[in-house]
Design a protein that fits this description.
three-stranded antiparallel beta sheet; 9 strands; alpha/beta; six-stranded parallel beta sheet; Rossmann fold; 241 residues
């Protein structure tokens, strides 16, 4: 596990952008393509905007990048809350990414069929017995959830390397999420977390007793790959240096 603790938010975004570029180059040089899993929410939006900007967009061979999503809200594809819709506007459209390189989660199906379909899509695209992404980007919620692995949901005990429908009882809504075992097969996993409001969750995940039902992000522990935490000083403020 490697920590990158940066003083300011812009420095943090630049650091994880550099990591993204480095991993992409290594993957393309080694295997001819870069299979990356993106996260939604407000935190990575700044990363996508930076990657699409001058001085950064030239560093990646975008034609050899395949984009997937670690989770999705069960809302229509054109809903502002849809993760893929946000990424389309901030990254795909500015870079003119071909639709053949993007693999959003199909929320026009039932939640269960959507999850099943995405599991099939991943297997077909990776074309390997072991479903191994080159990089998975993750965020962290104030309740220590990551992707759509929320506290006290059945998906936390799912041992399959798959995508599952997750019903959030409190909100009465569905989400679609990769399971922890699928995420943990990745070659590289990177958390992007910033803000003082995330400091307690960061401490719970990294320093408290192992209680994944309570702190789901504790489940993320790659089998063979590397785990990086990109934090600003505020989010890391409750960790002992």
């Amino acid at each position: 596990m490697t920590f990158h603790i940066l003083k300011t938010n812009p420095e943090l975004i630049k650091a994880i952008a550099g990591h993204f570029i480095s991993v992409s180059k290594n993957a393309i040089a080694s295997r001819g393509e870069f299979n990356v899993v993106l996260s939604g929410g407000s935190s990575p939006k700044k990363l996508y905007e930076l990657l699409a900007s001058h001085g950064y967009k030239e560093e990646v061979n975008w034609k050899k990048v395949n984009f997937f999503f670690g989770d999705e809200r069960y809302v229509p594809a054109n809903d502002p809350e849809n993760n893929a819709y946000m990424v389309k506007r901030t990254l795909f459209d500015p870079l003119n990414i071909s639709q053949s390189n993007t693999f959003p989660i199909n929320t026009s199906l039932s939640p269960q069929e959507s999850a099943k379909s995405y599991t099939t899509t991943i297997a077909a695209q990776l074309g390997r017995q072991e479903l191994q992404f080159d990089l998975i980007l993750l965020g962290l919620g104030e309740n220590a959830h990551t992707a759509s692995l929320f506290p006290y949901t059945p998906v936390l005990t799912d041992k399959s390397t798959s995508v599952q429908a997750v019903f959030l009882e409190g909100q009465k809504i569905y989400r679609i999420s990769m399971t922890a075992p699928l995420i943990n097969q990745a070659r590289n996993i990177a958390f992007l977390v910033y803000g003082l409001e995330k400091a307690e969750a960061v401490h719970h995940v990294l320093k408290d007793e192992f209680e994944p039902e309570k702190y789901p992000a504790q489940l993320i522990n790659p089998l063979k790959g590397e785990l990086h935490w990109f934090l600003d000083e505020a989010a890391a403020s409750l960790l002992e240096r």
